Fold:
Amino acid sequence: MPDERLMHYEPEELVPISALTQYAYCPRRCALIHIEQMWTENKFTAEGRIMHEHVHDEGNESRGDVRTERGTSLRSLALGVIGKADVVEYHRQADGSWQAFPVEYKRGKPKSDHSDKIQLCAQAMCLEEMLGASIPAGALFYGKTRRRLDVDFDAALRMETREAARLTRELVASGQTPKPVYAKRCESCSLMGECMPKTIQKKRSVESYLKRMLEENDTPAPPSPPTRGGEDL
Structure:
């Protein structure tokens, strides 16, 4: 597998950072949005959109040793992604330099998977490439808990982020939407109606059953034992 840190993607090859989040959450959802151009808003996506708009509208500010910039455009030709950061804080260090600290806002609560962390890490890796600086950590702010979750950009998360970027690019380039696999998270997905995981999965099960039945019925019957004088031997 090629080392993506040594690769350089052209601008037209870049995928949205948000696509990495979608892929980590559900590859089919990622394909429905970024290949089939589907999008349906529900209560949760609407609340998330309003939260992001509110954050971006607050504008930049400077308070003491923290400078805050909102809606920063991001790009990484090494990772192959493009996007926007909700908030980037710059913390003044003892030597007078400024340390970037990305903060991503989320409507709900911390997830059991790494989809949100991958999004934040991708933002940090973009900033590192753009600023020529090292960014060791950032934070996720969740609206439901009203708390920040600090995230360390360690080697494992960076590797997971690079892999998510690679797989997302391959999925989008293939133009193929994966088949649905129903899971509990499907119930809160805004594309539940378009995806129809239960319906399609059930249809596939029925088709598979009918195929097996037909194959069994097509199996030739074993030959009858020889007879003599009209009687079985």
